Amino acid sequence: MKVLVTGGMGYIGSHTCVRLIESGIEPIIIDNLSNAKVEVLSRIEALTGQQPLFYQGDVRDEVFLDSVFANHNIQAVIHFAGLKAVGESVAKPLEYYDNNVNGSFVLARCMRKAGVKSLVFSSSATVYGDPDTVPITEASPTGATTNPYGRSKYMVEQGLSDLFFAEGDWSITLLRYFNPVGAHPSGTMGEDPQGIPNNLMPFIAQVAIGRREYLSVFGHDYPTPDGTGVRDYIHVMDLAEGHIAALKTVGEQSGLHIYNLGTGKGSSVLDMVEAFSAACGQPVRYELCPRRPGDIAECWASTAKAERELGWQATRSVAEMTADTWHWQSKNPQGYSPE
Ligand code: WQD
Known about the structure:
3-stranded mixed sheet; isomerase; binds UDP-4-deoxy-4-formamido-beta-L-arabinopyranose; NAD; alpha/beta
């Protein structure tokens, strides 16, 4: 089985490609390398013995996409390519809507031309906005998003849902990620954010390795057990396996399939700091700071639907998430080397 993986050189895409190859599925990667390094290819090869086919290009380039579909018998697409920094999206909304929304619909149009009707879309828990209750189920209200990034994911979900109801022969799976963290247990692949990390885990890792002086804890007056924000952190390897489970169970069934990919457990910022300190064997220095605009107090998933319908559930603990992150960061202090 050949699967086109857009954004397959990125953090979640590359870890998913490792598990695809190990599952006997051949990934064909397209990526514009706007937030990824070509070195990832050799890391995938070192782990799996196979270097996936890679075409540098942009999902908004219809001619490029048509050529890839014309040259390969692709059965399904996993669509990771997109911009994903919440704060950046507030400053650059047009770039987010062009990359994430326009890119997704150009891709769907090219899939239709090529007769490829199985699509797994990398969505996000941000489509739920600030939940009234937790845990969040797939039936929880969506759309009350608080930033252009979340709105772009919601728009794509809506467009793909409309496409399915217009043309019922598609298999469209929307995977709503909670908070992806961690790294491949080998320590050779991991998250490599460019510039100052927006997300908690890579920032903590950079404090531990000495690249950052301390972690700013954004808010300690939330209505949570220790006053800091609570999230559902999920190991990137669990997330990768969730994609394969989706491909194998509903990837060939016409339908609109929607699943949360989380652990069903919430951890606070200070929980993560404590776990990381245990993983790296040293305290992680932090300062308590005011809340970050747009943040919500708590968010974690109900995972019952994915367990029931995909036969998938996350198995890796917060201790493994932090240990694998530290293993990656300590072996690769500067991330993947620049070209
Ligand atoms: C987590 C917690 C912060 C940084 C975002 C996207 C979401 C997904 C994951 C793509 C919050 C606190 C953070 C820091 C801190 N990305 N924090 N100091 O905002 O839950 O979700 O990333 O799909 O779509 O919205 O993740 O890691 O930024 O924050 O205290 O330096 O850590 O306040 O409570 P978030 P995050």
